[in-house]
Amino acid sequence: MKLQQENRMENKDQWLNWVIELQGLAQAGLTYGKDVFDLERYTRIREIAAEILSMKSEIPVETVKNLFCNETGYQTPKLDTRAAIIENDRILLVREQNGKWSLPGGWVDVDKSVGENAVKEVLEEAGLRVTADRIIAVQDRNRHNLPRYAYNICKIFFLCTRTGGEFQANAETTESRWYAEDELPQLAEEKNNAEQIQMCFAASRNPNWHILFD
Fold first, then answer.
1. Distance CA 80, CA 46 (A)
2. DSSP output for 56-123
3. Separation of alpha carbons 153 and 214, rounded Å
4. φ and ψ at 151, to 5 degrees?
5. Which of 92, 141, 181, 188 could form a disulfide with 153 if both were Cys (CB 3.0 to 4.6 A apart)?
6. Is 187 helix (H, G, I), strand (E, B) or coil?
7. Among the four given CATH numbers 3.30.450.40, 2.60.40.10, 2.60.40.420, 3.90.79.10, the one describing domain 78-213
8. Where are the domains of the chain?
9. Taking a C-beta distance cutoff of 8 angstroms, is the pair 210, 134 a contact?
10. What pLDDT digit, counting tens, does each position of 109-120 carry?
11. CA neighbours within 13 Å on the CB side: how many for 130?
12. Distance from C-alpha of 43 to C-alpha of 61, rounded to nearest angstrom
C-alpha cells in the first residue's frame, strides 16, 4: 500500500520533474553553448519551464523566473545547514516569523564552509555560540520535506555543542526554546520535520553514529 501511494505521488509530481530537467538542460546549454541560434533556443526552453511552473503553481511568471531562472553556470543543488543542539535530552528550536519552529539554519554563504555556516546561523537565529562537532546526515530535501521545490537543496544536519550566549532579538526568529522529543511544537516542515528531529536525537545518543546520506 505504501509503495502504491509513493508511486501515485511520483506520477502526480512528474510534471515538476520534467520542469526541473528542462531548466537544468537549458541552463547547461546557455553555459556551454556557442551558436547564437542554439542560445536562443535554450533561452526559450528555460522560459517554457518557467511558464509551466507558473501555470501549475499559480505564482506569477516573473516571480518564478527570479527564483528559478536567475543562475548561471552548471546547475547544482543549493546548500542548507541545520544545527541540532541537544542538552538534557531536549533540543533547541527557534520560532520563525510565521510562528512555526525549526532547527537554527539557512543557506550556506559563499564565503563560509558548511561547518562555519552552521555555527554562524545558530549565533544569528538563537544567539548561542556553538561548535559544529559531527555531521548527522546529508539529505536531498525533496526526498524528505514538503512542499517540493523546483530546485534541489542539499541539507546538512550538524550535531553542535553550546559554549555560551543567549537568545537575542533578530530579524529572522522571535524566540528559542528547548523541547523533548515527545513534545515537539508545530514545525516549519518545509525546513525540518519530526522524522528529521528524531534523527538528530538518535545521533546524539549514539557515539558511533554513521552519517546518513541519500
1. 25
2. HHT--HHHHHHHHS---SS---EEEEEEEEEETTEEEEEEETTS-EE-SEEEPPTTS-HHHHHHHHHH
3. 12
4. -135, 155
5. 141
6. strand
7. 3.90.79.10
8. 2-68, 78-213
9. no
10. 989 999 999 999
11. 33
12. 15
Number of helices (H), then strands (E), belonging to the chain: the values are 6, 8
Confidence of residue 70 (pLDDT cuts 50, 70, 90): confident
The three three-digit cell numbers of residue 97, written as one number: 516569523
| Residues 173-196 pLDDT 10s | 999 999 999 999 999 999 999 999
- Give the mean pLDDT of the chain: 92
pTM value is 0.78
* pLDDT in the model for residue 18: 92
- pLDDT for 100-154, tens place per residue? 999 999 999 989 999 999 999 999 999 999 999 999 999 999 999 999 887 889 9
Q: How many residues does the chain have?
A: 214
Select from 71, 62, 53, 50 the least CA-distant residue to 16.
Answer: 53
Q: How far apart are CA 179 and CA 163, in angstroms?
A: 19
